[in-house]
Amino acid sequence: MPTNGEHPVVHVLWINAGLSCDGDSVALTAAMQPSIEDIVLGVLPGLPKVVFHWPLIDYQNGEEFMEWFWMASRGQLEPFVLVVEGSIPNEQIKSEGYWTGFGNDPKTGQPVTVNEWLDKLAPYATAIVAAGTCATYGGIHAMEGNPTGAMGVPDYLGWSWKSKAGLPVVCVPGCPIQPDNLSETLLYLLNQVAGNAPMIPLDENLRPRWLFDLTVHEGCDRAGFYEQGQFTKEYGTVECLVKIGCWGPVVKCNVPKRGWMAGIGGCPNVGGICIGCTMPGFPDMFMPFMDEPPGAKISSRTVAIYGGLIRSLRSMTLHTVDKETKWRHRGPALTTGYRPTW
Amino acid sequence: MTMPSQGPSGKLVEMNWDPITRIVGSLGIYTKIDFEKRKVAECKSTSSIFRGYSVFMKGKDPRDSHFITSRICGICGDNHATCSCYTQNMAYGVKPPHLAEWIVNLGEAAEYMFDHNIFQENLVCVDFCEKMVKETNPGVWERAAKTEAPHAAEHGYRTIGDIMKAVNPIEGDFYREALMMSRLTREMFCLMEGRHVHPSTLYPGGVGTVATVQLFSDYTTRLMRYIDFLKRVVPLHDDLFDFFYQALPGYHEVGQRRILLGCWGSFQDPEVCNFRYADMTNWGRAMFVTPGIIVDGKLVTNDLVQINLGIRILLGSSYYSDWQTDEKFVTHDPLGNPVDGRHPWNQTTIPMPQKRDFDEKYSWVMSPRWYDGKNHLALDTGGGPIARLWSTALSGLVDIGYIKATGKSVVINLPRSASKPEARFEWKIPKWSNTIERDRARSYFQAYAAACALHFVDKALQELRAGRDKTWESFKVPKDAIGCGFTEAVRGVLSHHMVIRGGKIANYHPYPPTPWNASPRDSFGTPGPYEDAIQGQPIFEENPPDKFKGIDIMRTVRSFDPCLPCGVHIYAGGRVIEQVHSPFHFEEKQR
Ligand code: SF4
Ligand code: SF4
Fold first, then answer.
1. A307 in Cβ contact with A114 (< 8 Å)
2. Which CATH architecture has domain A3-210?
3. pTM score
4. In CATH, what number does A214-307 get?
5. Which of these, A6, A324, B349, B513, has the minimum number of CB atoms within 10 Å of its CB?
6. Of A113, A19, A110, residue with least CA distance to A69
């Protein structure tokens, strides 16, 4: 095993072939705190040597590239962190073919499905990171009426799954992921693998606590308008967006506070409604996105006087949207509402 | 290792690369190579992911469509969101305030700058870097190290070899500088559209972006830093690419195919565009990148209505069941022209997962074609820039000071910046539609987008200073309506077609560039553009089959800027004499 001083080399194996848009890979190239160069060049103190096997920028191609995954599946790559991007389709709902493949099976010449890769790699991974809302909870491709039966990595592996090092699936949601939220979580895990950090603190939906504990609303710079009861009916103004579709009060996400890149951009802070893209209930429970969220009516009218009551009403809504829809599951039945033609 | 046995017309070695990295999405390449003739014998193209947008969008609120379709692509999702808003604007009959359109144009310009930059320097150029060239063509490397770079004064690298070193992955200083620039341009993007890559502030009717003086200052200061950088980028790539033509005579044949280019136009002019279908010919021609179809170097049409009516979706070798073409959603367009049953407005997507069989069905990608009245043309986008510049040049309509289309070329004027004086770049229509020219155009188009952005900032500030700071117009969703939108995704043509029935989406079909470029053989047996460009291309790599990296093939594939969240595989069929699963792990196998 290659080593760097006392620390082993940590391999990061990245599967971008879930049902995804690759937006989370692209997001990682945007991250600056830390950047991918910082991690690869090892410029942060205490960081172990890291080797990425990441389709988006890898020098290698084809089986030269895939060989790392095969080695890992035989237990010959140690330690490694597996990053999964994209939702996991249900390959059991049909008799032939594949929804998504990653490399080929040398025996059959057919694509190896992402599901098979998860089965092969999960037992050996020190940690699995689900990057982006598709991988964490199913996301957009798991919308009602979808034909693939898509689900998140924890739905596939089981919510109580633990890696051999005792880590649950680490979920970093976001559609796409906020760039620094991903690179920072990777940094934490690499430090944990190197023995520099204790167990990563995760909440009940397996999100890093320090990133996802607060709601959008709690970090929104328009909350002053909310408090003053100034709700816009039009896009493009500076006031609170709740009447035109902002779900900020019940969504866990740090984007309005952190901005999108270098503090720039975001959602409600820059005039975009929060559509709940980090949430297990995304997208169905937030659609139609441009309508006022149900429940916003009372809460925005009475906010000043009944702060405490509002908080408890809100936690009820939060409870609903913080749960996935019921059709994201394994098994031979497709329950999304789509009637298969195959 | 034994040499491949002798076939009737030479030795064919089957080779595949799956996945192809340094693109967006999962792409695999399956080739059969005639090492004696140093040519690729045959090639097929297939995709490995199905997600089913057109399926699950049915019955949803039409106002959700830009949020949903943005998620089709993780590097140019905003192009989808923009195209969807155009489509919705048409369907709802709403015209956004001018300022909103300038803001969208500024966001989209930043997207081109970001995406072409990161793709070119961090993904494509690795195929031209020191490390790679040493491994594939040591002779070329030796020559590069000795060849003076003609534009050294502009970009600061004395020899071609120095340029190649500068683009080595992560270690190269230009590689890292470009990656930093790709963040700066994404910040510009976020200023206008909120979040990269799925925007938060785009809506039908306009944008949620709050237009202030600060917004445009923040954008312009970054734009000028990027322009300073570009003044090195364009000459640097000219030097690098020209060197390949010199060092490897015949390199123009790599990735060359018949000139069959499509461009759907980009950047609306709010002074002309009202999003009404009936006026589409007019506002299409007013776009700041002119739409056009180019066949054998001639402009066939720049009329978006004609372009729209000619689109056909063929299934051919893809994993879908055909739909009933007689039950149409849209029989006639709003001008009264008949709409074909294979047009996206009338398409139904019916997935049929099955085993991959290269003699039958082998792809999740359908085959969009453009029907010229006689043939179903397999247009390509050349990765976007080459088709955009070619189309704009030929039409000769764009003339905004910063840019002038001359009929033969496009002239780009950039103002003085921190470390460089004013610069004038001229992109001239090339002799070939090939790998090198696709890549070269990508550098020039970054300058084009930056020059357009300067114009858009001027225009936006005029609006703001005149007190017209509204960025959104209200609308009602009609019970029944149709809409279409056309723009250029970063890597080429993008269209969205929507049908609304009973206030809900009855049909929605987006056609991004990758299906055009990556399509498999269609129902007439016509290969898709990747297949076509790779098939028959010469091989210049010096490595023998057991060490073969397929670099010339990789360069061709990447010249199209594959963006495959819908995954593509390329396979070379024909007589299989020897199968090599991997150029890295050579093994013999008879089939
Ligand atoms: S815009 Fe959204 S997050 Fe911000 S204050 Fe209003 S409701 Fe809360
Ligand atoms: S603020 Fe809302 S829409 Fe924006 S990133 Fe967070 S969860 Fe997603």
1. no
2. 3-Layer(aba) Sandwich (3.40)
3. 0.93
4. 4.10.480.10
5. A6
6. A113
